Amino acid sequence: MQDMHMPVTPRRFLPSISLLQAFEAVCRTGSTAAAARELALSQGTVSRLVQNLEGQLGAQLFRRERRRLIPTEAAQVYARDVRKALDLIARSSLGVRSNPGGGVLSLAILPTFGTRWLAPRLPDFLSAHPGITINLATRLRPFDFAREGFDAAIHFGAADWPGAAMTRLFDERLIATCSPDFLRRNPVTSPADLVRLPLLQLETRPDAWAQWLRQHGVEGAAPGRGMMFDQFATMTQAAIAGAGLALLPEFLAVGEIGEGRLVRACGGAATGVGSYWLVWPEAAEGNPPLRPFRDWLVGVTAPLRAD
């Protein structure tokens, strides 16, 4: 039965998937020939699909210049939205195919947390909840749930995601690490000794070293500069290779320390600049797979919480 409260979009503003795919492919590849090869269609068919879309919308989407199609500014904006919509439909379709009984949770994860910590533990959850499928994708920063189509996300930072509900998983605790060989070549006796050494930096935590040093009684020091990274995973590998000292979350470093590839340089764990959170859109509170996943995640992260 049709929901009488749902607005009905006029049919002419709902182009077919084939029209939208052709349009998006031409915008992205720059030509009808390239789009035709990608879609396994003839070039003439792609041209007709684009013309049909323009006719349906009543707007010119491309300028024709010497056999080239140049998207208008409006078409470029439209193509971005169409691309997101097609991606959402594709991911939803994949979810139905992989789990026709329902129970699909699309989760955005932080890359290192997701691959190094969460992924190895997911089989336990999936084994206890065989009707649920979890799809993972990487996102480094907050995004618009409505546009991206995710059901939930693992987020690092503060409780400041607009329009979302959040559950704190644990606070970040950072330790100073380096390779055993680096420590032999650069012996340290106190945290103050680290200031003169190359300190590897993370883009999302530019003040982490200064804060770590302050918590260890080193005031007013200007930490030495080192290489800059966008992810913990690559920074960890650089530290293992001896490029400098890395401030790593304690829960991520224990594996490398246990294997002898990294050692604690000096000092203990210090409070980081934020916490790890499970975040979901407020409207998705009733999503069936969300509650069991949230309960499981809160339970499995309990040993990482200090409180």
UniProtKB/TrEMBL annotation:
- Pfam families tied to this protein: HTH_1, LysR_substrate
In what residue span(s) does the HTH lysR-type domain sit? 15-72
- The protein's name: LysR family transcriptional regulator
Identify the keywords attached in UniProt to this record, alphabetized: DNA-binding, Transcription, Transcription regulation
* Superkingdom assignment: Bacteria
Question: Per the similarity annotation, which family is this?
Answer: Belongs to the LysR transcriptional regulatory family.
InterPro entries (UniProt xref): LysR-type_TF_proteobact-type, LysR_HTH_N, LysR_subst-bd, WH-like_DNA-bd_sf, WH_DNA-bd_sf
**Is Translocase one of the keywords UniProt gives this record?**
no
Specify the species: Halodurantibacterium flavum
Under the heading Gene3D superfamilies, the entry gives: Periplasmic binding protein-like II, Winged helix-like DNA-binding domain superfamily/Winged helix DNA-binding domain
